[in-house]
Amino acid sequence: MNPHKSLLIPLLLIILASGFGYRSYTKTEHLITADLNQAVRRIVLQERELTQHSDTVLAYKQLNLTMGTPVTVSSATPAFVQALTLEALRKRAVLSICLSEDSCPPVPAGCLASDTVLWMAPGTDGAVLTFRGYARCTPWFILTQSDQTTAVCLLAASLLCLGYILRLRKRPAGLTAETPEDDKLITFGNLSLSQRDDCFYDEQHERLHLTPMQYALMEMFYLTEDHRLTKPHICRSLWPGKDNADETLYTLIRRLKPIVETHSNLRIASDRGRAYILELNE
């Protein structure tokens, strides 16, 4: 496989891991907001001391007049805390109550907030209380509350895949997953002969597809010190007992030449018609 294309696999796994992780993260954010919403609604409907008692509303009015500015009261009201279904939120959530919608403060940094619930208490001349729930939720807290199992598995798979690819890239030239490091290699130019596998490897560490006779001739070139073979020597080795194998040898050389020149920096040259030489194609 092309080394650059092989990197697409871990990259795709990382993208998938990020997608699943982000989806789970945002889903947890929605769950926290939904829990705050239901807890606020329950408080408004069930806690009369906070919502329907006119003295409570009058007390907020008096605070506003005394302070000269809108007053908001925030506290971890026990009833509100117990109304939360997510256990992890109960130590982080508060209920905020103020007299009018305009006086509600902005959502503090690092917090998630419920929707604002308005309640007009009877006997208070139209005064409106606003209720909103807050929870301190850092990105890390949301991440730990979300289910990241799929994302972690995909990320681990991408790291394993990347490590495997890097390991293959560090192998010496001519070695692939199918050619162990202790394989005996004979290299000439950018072609390597593996005597263990009886095959040649090109510069991209891929097998060179040769017929049995083509491989036998190339092996003879590689095992000869000067890479020079005479015609009689080739004919006796490849076609023993055949009286005249010149035409057969010529056909073999003619078909082997383009394969060698296309997949390597070598060529097969003729030495005055008496011998063939495997040499660098410069």
Describe the structure.
This protein folds into two domains: 3-145, no CATH class; 172-280, Orthogonal Bundle (Arc Repressor Mutant, subunit A), CATH 1.10.10.10. It has ten helices and twelve strands. The protein has helices spanning 3-6, 8-46, 48-51, 54-67, 78-83, 139-145, 149-169, 212-223, 231-238, 246-263, and strands spanning 72-75, 93-98, 111-113, 117-120, 128-136, 185-188, 191-194, 199-201, 207-208, 228-230, 266-271, 275-280. The strands form three sheets. Strands 1, 2, 3, 4 and 5 form a five-stranded antiparallel β-sheet that branches. A four-stranded antiparallel β-sheet has the order 6-7-8-9, with helices on one face. Strand 11 and strand 12 form a beta hairpin.
